[in-house]
Amino acid sequence: KGTLYVVATPIGNLADLSPRARDVLAAVALIAAEDTRHSAHLLRHLGVETPLISLHEHNEAQRIASLTARLEAGEDVALISDAGTPLISDPGFLLVRALRERGLRVVPVPGACALVAALSASGVATDRFLFAGFLPARGGPRRSAIEALAERQETLVFYESPHRIRETLADLGAVLGERHLVLARELTKTFETFLDGTPAELLATLEADPNQARGEFVLVVEGAPAVDRDPERERGRELLGAMLAEG
Ligand code: SAM
Fold this sequence. Notes:
Layout (H helix, E strand, L loop, with lengths): L2 E5 L11 H9 L2 E4 L2 H11 L5 E3 L5 H13 L4 E4 L12 H9 L3 E5 L4 H9 L6 E6 L4 H11 L5 E6 L4 H12 L4 E5 L7 E5 L1 H10 L8 E5 L9 H16 L1
Parallel strand pairs: 1-4, 1-5, 2-3, 2-4, 6-7
Antiparallel strand pairs: 7-10, 8-9, 8-10
The protein binds S-adenosylmethionine.
The site of S-adenosylmethionine (SAM) has 23 residues, from α5, β7 and β10.
């Protein structure tokens, strides 16, 4: 039986594709890609001539049967997305789950991933983090989503597009206040930039220099401060509260 290779591709700098990734893309019978035109460009650059088929959010469910049949017949297949690691805010989850349920082999070929790249160079705590992908596009649901995360003490990581970066910073400010965050822009590309500050400060920077609002973004937000769990102090607060209530 064949193997599905989940292959990471670059998030900007083409030199980030590993030699192993290139070998796998050249050796498989077929590459399933989010956007075949976009990936044809990468494959040309790599000198790889493997045939491509599309696998995107609108046809993923339909593709599962034909890809399963080819893997069952012994062919190896690679899955790639437009940038970075497939399945990370990208298609592929339905396929990988279906193949694992059938006992077929799925092998990762790791490489670039914007969230890990941003986090690793952000200077924000990395021991525990919560990746929340893209926030909802509409204002109400977006603010509710931020509110639901406001008390989390682990670092929060979001993806954002240039269309909504200002609104998202404004909503982060409205809900989280003066929370420190890092805006990682255009990672591995010519205009890679890390900006840090409060949401209001970053918003002001983007307003002052619209070039800073262009490109692709990862937002790395410091977690909520730890709640004071010292029992002595907590009891002190309770006593004070009771005295004030009686007051
Ligand atoms: N699968 C990809 C990965 O492994 O990171 C993410 C795909 S998701 C559809 C695209 C989002 O990832 C962008 O909107 C942006 O938030 C983030 N992203 C991708 N490339 C980036 C880069 N070079 N710099 C900053 N953010 C990037």
